[in-house]
């Protein structure tokens, strides 16, 4: 264009280039605001570890949603919706199997099993005091949960509370042995109230840890809930991303008796809201209780 001789009627052509550039800039700046669906935001939030940078990202997502539709999407609600019990289940050979075994928000119970042969890929041993010596798979948790457990134990120690980790990860094969032993000793009905069939234990997710205290001989019994350590755990677990999974008086809804010792990592974004809700995990992630 520059090499050509200037003619007044070329002004239209000259305008085309800057107009195109302006359009591109406008489209690019609109992109993130209109493109972020609730599901994408949920995924971003779920994948993000806690930290200031991530908080900024969430705030930006909220603003983006507000700008596009006029109504902000609550990022916690978005995670609940994405992880809902209805959205994360499939039938495999007549069995109900979860579709998201690696999600921090995965829900496993008597009706919802892990895929056959599932084993978390990032199991590590948290640096906390255990109730037993020697190596064992039950020392392990998934990395994010293990780091959170270390922080929880440090917080307890700072408050003068002495906790012990008793039992974390449990493989399919070991769960099978435990369940079959319980059936032999107690009968099938009683066994299913206190233990899971293989594939249905939260311990197999690598996100659960049974916790007790030397003050009760490190036992896993309901009496732990009445100790100062058990009360501290119930009050503070959610600050570190954990919840007491099997609540008192909720056996009909969780399928398990009250277990004040069983804590489940579910993320620092979800745990405080879940604890405040006084809902079971199953209720909290039920679509009928989720409002987007
Ligand atoms: Zn447990």
Structure notes:
The protein is α+β, with helices and mostly antiparallel strands and 292 residues long. It has two domains: 8-79, no CATH class; 86-289, Muramoyl-pentapeptide Carboxypeptidase, domain 2. The chain has eleven helices and eight strands. Strands 5-6-8-7 form a four-stranded antiparallel β-sheet. A two-stranded antiparallel sheet has the order 1-2. A two-stranded antiparallel sheet has the order 3-4. Helix 2 packs across helix 4 (75-82) and helix 6 packs across helix 7 (188-194). The longest helix is centred in the first third of the chain and has 25 residues, at 11-35. It is globular and about 50 Å long. The relative contact order is 0.11. The structure holds zinc ion. Residues 139-267 form the D-alanyl-D-alanine carboxypeptidase-like core domain. One of its GO terms (biological process) is proteolysis.
């Amino acid at each position: 264009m520059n090499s050509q001789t200037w003619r007044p009627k070329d002004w239209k052509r000259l305008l085309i280039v800057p107009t195109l550039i302006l359009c591109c800039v406008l489209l690019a700046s609109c992109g993130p605001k209109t493109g972020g669906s609730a599901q994408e935001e949920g995924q971003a939030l779920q994948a993000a570890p806690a930290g200031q940078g991530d908080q900024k990202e969430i705030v930006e997502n909220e603003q983006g949603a507000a700008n596009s539709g006029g109504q902000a999407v609550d990022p916690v609600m978005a995670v609940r919706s994405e992880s809902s019990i209805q959205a994360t289940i499939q039938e495999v050979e007549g069995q109900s199997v979860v579709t998201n075994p690696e999600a921090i928000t995965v829900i496993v119970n008597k009706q919802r099993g892990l895929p056959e042969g599932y084993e978390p890929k990032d199991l590590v041993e948290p640096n906390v005091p255990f109730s037993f010596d020697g190596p064992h798979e039950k020392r392990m948790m998934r990395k994010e949960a293990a780091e959170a457990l270390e922080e929880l134990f440090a917080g307890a120690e700072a408050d003068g509370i002495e906790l012990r980790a008793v039992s974390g990860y449990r493989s399919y094969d070991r769960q099978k042995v435990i369940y079959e032993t319980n059936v032999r000793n107690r009968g099938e009905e009683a066994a299913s109230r206190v233990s899971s069939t293989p594939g249905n234990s939260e311990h197999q997710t690598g996100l659960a840890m049974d916790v007790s205290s030397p003050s009760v001989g490190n036992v896993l019994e309901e009496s732990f809930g009445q100790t100062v350590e058990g009360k501290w755990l119930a009050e503070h677990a959610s600050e570190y991303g954990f919840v007491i999974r099997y609540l008192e008086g909720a056996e009909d809804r969780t399928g398990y008796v009250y277990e004040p010792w069983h804590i489940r990592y579910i993320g620092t974004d979800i745990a405080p809201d879940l604890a405040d809700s006084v809902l079971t995990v199953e209720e909290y992630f039920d679509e009928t209780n989720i409002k987007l």
